[in-house]
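Re: that backbone. Tokens:
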């Protein structure tokens, strides 16, 4: 099932997408009930499919990505956070923070959307706390990540958390293909099978640190092949079984 948020005639709703049509629904966190007539997907504007209270992100979760940065493999998940204010949706603009950074990278990632309140969840129970999966771009000011001790600035600029185009509830997160394209050229291409800590271990681990709320997101780390973006570039994160999240980089006004 594909779940989305969309706007039509200035009204924002959650939706279910079926065969190219969008049906309004109440919050998917309390059960999906289709309402009314479907609208054509091309007639609505898709928004970020969730409004997370927080985004927890995992650093160095693919062996080959750790190797490309010359880092040792972590013994437990390395977590950091991105602010909810960084979220943008499909086709929205990534604003290049040229007042502070001169090296901004894409990081294509599998995004996990939490479906219900999760605290101290066991690995074997984790699946039941997940609503679904979406494409995520963990945009990063790489120069500031190196300069600052904390990741907050490098990962926290407005528009640095691209989410969408929708949530897919039915994929196998243990073997999904993630590809990232910059101006149509493939830059990343890896299976989530290569994660050091899989999705269920991550949800369990994070839930033993902080309570996860419905709509919270976990960005599960990027595979190798990260690289820089410039204003005017189009970046796409494509995940098998989900779809393609497309954004354009623009100059700061
Ligand atoms: Mg990342």
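Recovered sequence:
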């Amino acid at each position: 099932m594909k779940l989305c948020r969309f706007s039509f005639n200035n009204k924002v709703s959650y939706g279910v997408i079926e065969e190219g049509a969008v049906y309004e629904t109440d919050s998917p966190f309390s059960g999906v009930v289709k309402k009314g007539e479907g609208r054509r997907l091309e007639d609505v504007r898709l928004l970020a499919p969730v409004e997370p209270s927080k985004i927890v992100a995992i650093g160095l979760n693919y062996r080959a990505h750790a190797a490309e940065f010359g880092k040792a493999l972590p013994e437990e998940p390395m977590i950091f956070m991105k602010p909810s204010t960084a979220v943008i949706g499909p086709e929205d603009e990534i604003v290049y923070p040229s007042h502070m950074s001169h090296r901004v990278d894409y990081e294509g990632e599998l995004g996990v959307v939490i479906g219900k309140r999760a605290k101290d969840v066991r690995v074997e129970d984790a699946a039941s706390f997940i609503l679904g999966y979406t494409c995520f771009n963990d945009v990063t000011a790489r120069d500031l990540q190196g300069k600052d001790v904390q990741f907050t600035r490098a990962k926290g600029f407005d528009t640095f958390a691209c989410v969408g185009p929708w949530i897919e509830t039915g994929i196998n997160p243990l073997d999904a293909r993630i590809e990232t394209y910059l101006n149509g050229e493939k830059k990343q291409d890896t299976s989530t099978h290569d994660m050091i800590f899989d999705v269920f271990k991550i949800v369990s681990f994070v839930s033993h640190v902080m309570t996860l709320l419905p709509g919270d997101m976990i960005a599960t780390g990027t595979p190798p092949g990260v690289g820089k973006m410039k204003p005017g570039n189009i970046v796409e994160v494509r995940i098998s079984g989900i779809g393609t999240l497309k954004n354009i980089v623009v100059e700061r006004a």
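The longest helix spans residues 199-207. The chain has two domains: 2-46, 50-251.
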